[in-house]
Design goal:
Largest sheet: 7 strands, antiparallel
Order of helices and strands: HHEHHEEEHEHHEHE
Strand order of the largest sheet: 1-4-3-2-5-7-6
Strand content: 15-25%
Number of strands: 7
Number of domains: 1
Number of helices: 8
Helix content: 25-40%
Distance between the termini: 46 Å
CATH architecture: 3-Layer(aba) Sandwich
CATH class: Alpha Beta
Length: about 250
């Protein structure tokens, strides 16, 4: 494994996209078809319909100014579950589509470099009305959730995967964002790895504000065991791997 010094890492962060990329050699410039905007799933896989965005107006909470002013991280959650409508809203606010997708391209509720959106949203569901505990994946194209697997020990496992942060098991749901780097590399080559991380920040900030809007709370988590978290997601850890977590739930 190649190791980089702090100075080399800082230099990469400071490099502009134009300086880093040879645009004549990216897959996009060479005519390679773009990768799919959403990870495929097996035919016949179990999916759960989510509440559509046009019904979110009935959710009660706080306005944008108050949400920004009161935004904070919560590590203690109440016992009340999130409803499916509330979870649907949080998913739409963080990765939902603003208009129908086209081949290789989608406009979402969060910005992304070149509209590439290299992230997938997984959910470790622990306390959501009508949902079994386990792992799910958001399908933004269909605005549905894919059932990856059910697991009554999901809270225990997410606690272990996050270096023993047991408080995460008290959340209603833990968002786990994975990256599929090639979606961004297709256009940006090496510079993809810089903008993927920027995208993760956009997504998680929307989660903070969306939680405030429904009188819930969240806490972003960057301290996690990479191998255990990838195992929890059942991803290969090379072409797809976890990059960010956030626990969310009702707060007293």
């Amino acid at each position: 494994m190649q190791h980089y010094s702090i100075e080399e890492s800082r230099s990469f962060l400071k490099d502009s996209v134009r300086k880093t990329i040879d645009f004549s050699r990216t897959d996009q410039s060479m005519g390679v078809a773009p990768p799919p905007i959403q990870k495929p799933y097996p035919p016949g896989a179990e999916r759960i319909d989510l509440v559509p965005p046009e019904e979110f107006s009935t959710l009660t909470g706080t306005g944008l100014l108050s949400a920004i002013a009161n935004r904070r991280s919560y590590r203690e959650f109440g016992k009340s579950p999130l409803t499916l409508k509330e979870l649907s809203f949080l998913l739409w606010a963080t990765q939902g589509l603003r208009e129908p997708a086209t081949a290789g391209h989608a406009l979402r509720t969060v910005p992304s470099a070149g509209a590439r959106h290299a992230l997938e949203t997984y959910l470790c569901v622990l306390n959501v009305t009508g949902l079994d505990m386990g792992l799910y994946r958001y399908l933004p194209v269909e605005h549905q959730m894919l059932v990856e697997y059910r697991d009554e020990k999901a809270g225990e496992k997410i606690g272990r995967a996050s270096f023993g942060q047991a408080w995460m098991a008290s959340a209603a749901v833990v968002f786990i964002w994975s990256a599929i780097p090639y979606r961004m590399e297709w256009r940006y080559g090496l510079a993809a790895h810089k903008v993927i991380l920027l995208d993760a920040g956009h997504v998680c900030q929307n989660l903070y504000l969306a939680c405030e809007a429904i009188n819930a709370g969240t806490c972003a988590v960057a301290a996690y065991d990479q191998e255990l978290t990838d195992q929890l997601l059942r991803v290969d850890g090379e072409y797809e791997f976890a990059v960010y977590l956030a626990a969310a739930g009702k707060v007293d």
